[in-house]
Amino acid sequence: MPAELLRIHPLNPEMRKINRVVECLRDGGLIIYPTDTVYGLGCDLMNRKAIERLCKVRQIKPEKLDLSFICHNISEVSKYVRRMDTSIFKIMKKVLPGPYTFIFESSSAVPKILGTNKKTVGIRIPDHRIPLLLVQELGNPLINASIKSEDVIQEYTTDPEEIHQQYMHQVDLVIDAGAGGNIPSTVVNCTSDEIEIVRIGLGPVNW
Hints:
Blueprint: E1 4-7, H1 15-26, E2 31-33, E3 40-44, H2 48-58, E4 68-70, H3 74-77, H4 86-95, E5 100-105, H5 109-114, E6 120-124, H6 129-138, E7 142-146, H7 160-167, E8 173-176, E9 186-189, E10 196-199
Parallel strand pairs: 1-8, 2-8, 4-6, 5-9
Antiparallel strand pairs: 2-3, 3-7, 4-7, 5-6, 9-10
Helix pairs in contact: 1-6
């Protein structure tokens, strides 16, 4: 059965539609949804079978899983990271929600959740109502992977209807919240004493 294409208002999401998506996630569904950067492919972090499905769609092995967690707020992040220095916390508090991925050493909880020995974890708190509401209502983070384009000129697919056509037989639901962006998040490595900017993306680094 082809995936549903569900239109949700990006600024004033209809809660009945959000709840329909959350129900899909709880049932182990794969969804495609908007963020403050590019559209993402995701599932419930706590559903091992859904993560395995996501890995198949991305054609990667679970042990090679190099994806980020979408969290609702910074306090939720502490469950999944081994340590967060005060300086990092201050930066995150200043720029989040926003277009950043912060990489940390993972806590002991992460390998137990994923079933694989993941030493690092990427954390995202996007500045977009829809994913934040999904995580809030679900009660768990989402595993997140960016939707890549096969176009050599445009790296990320921005049209949700085009995304739906491409993934309709691989996922359960695609959220249409209008055109997405084509610039990914800025990636910040926080695993050592010195912060390292791994990728300059949409988020400025003038902190």
